[in-house]
TrEMBL record:
Keywords carried by this UniProt record: Chaperone, Chromatin regulator, Nucleus, Transcription, Transcription regulation
GO cellular component: chromosome, telomeric region; cytosol; H3 histone acetyltransferase complex; nucleus
Record's subunit section: Interacts with histone H3 and histone H4.
Subcellular location, principal: nucleus
Region (Disordered) residue spans: 179-283
Source taxon at top rank: Eukaryota
Name of protein: Histone chaperone
Subcellular location: Nucleus
Signal peptide: none
Species assigned in the record: Mollisia scopiformis
Family membership noted in the UniProt record: Belongs to the ASF1 family.
Length: 283
């Protein structure tokens, strides 16, 4: 849990001229005494294509911090136009308001800023060299983007976990027992339901089947009686052929064994697979 929570930020002088200072009314809450100060910074993004034009407009140390709700006004100078390309002065850019404790950033508020001329004629046909005196900025204060980070404060107990907590109970059940278990139960229920429907659906078909089964059984008995009369001769005639088949099978089996003995079996190798984990960082 964060010891310091940002409650609100109000942009005071907005809209304003491009060369006017930035002013923010910041409200935050502190839940316990802190040993060090809070460091607030305001950064101006000078170019959307490269961070080499970013400027830290101002920074402020606030402390000691009393427990409870606190409010102060943060004022920062405007950006240095010499460090901004002429093509990047007009249009939409971003300012970042950040706060850190002991060099560990725990909150970031981003605002879009629209820079344009104060006249429709200049906006319709802007000169190649920007006229800074006629450029006005408008901070879109109604749509900030707030990002919070878990950090370590004064105590070790407040430090965020480096790894997810262990879950020993999750390893007691195999994955195969969990995944697809519900689907297997549903399939079994559907099979049972289909079998019950098939058993009750057509009683006439059951009678017909039983009658047919009886007729077939009688025919099978009659055929069995007829076959018993000549069974001795068939067994006597087939005994010789069975022995020949057995001998042929034994010969073929020996031939296969000889062929397998002449073949070398490849030795199995165990390959190692490296797993790479991409680290994603918030910017």
């Amino acid at each position: 849990m964060s010891v310091v929570s940002l409650l609100g930020v109000n942009v005071l002088n907005n809209p304003a001229k491009f060369g006017d200072s930035y002013q923010f009314e910041i409200t935050f809450e502190c839940l316990e005494p802190l040993q060090k100060d809070l460091e607030w910074k305001l950064t101006y993004v000078g170019s959307a294509t490269s961070d080499e034009h970013d400027q830290e407009l101002d920074s402020l140390l606030v402390g000691p911090i009393p427990v409870g709700v606190n409010k102060f006004i943060f004022e920062a100078d405007p950006p240095d136009t010499k460090r901004i390309p002429d093509a990047e002065i007009l249009g939409v850019t971003v300012i970042l308001l950040t706060c850190a404790y002991d060099n560990r950033e725990f909150v970031r508020v981003g605002y879009y800023v629209n820079n344009e001329y104060d006249s429709d004629e200049l906006n319709a046909d802007p000169p190649s060299k920007p006229i800074l005196e006629k450029v006005r900025r408008n901070v879109l204060a109604e749509k900030p983007r707030v990002t919070r980070f878990a950090i370590k404060w004064d105590s070790e107990a407040s430090a965020p976990a480096e790894f997810p907590p262990e879950q020993p109970e999750a390893d007691l059940v195999a994955d195969g027992d969990q995944y697809g278990a519900e689907e297997a139960e549903e399939e079994e229920e559907e099979e049972v339901a289909e079998g019950a429907e098939g058993a009750v659906a057509d009683p006439d078909a059951m009678v017909d089947d039983s009658e047919m089964a009886g007729v077939e059984g009688e025919k099978a008995v009659e055929a069995g009686e007829e076959s018993d009369d000549g069974s001795e001769d068939l067994e006597a005639e087939s005994s010789g052929s069975d022995e020949e088949e057995l001998e042929e099978e034994e010969v073929e089996g020996e031939a296969e064994d000889m062929e397998m003995d002449g073949v070398e079996k490849p030795n199995g190798t165990n390959g190692a697979v490296d797993h790479h984990v991409d680290a994603v960082m918030a910017h």
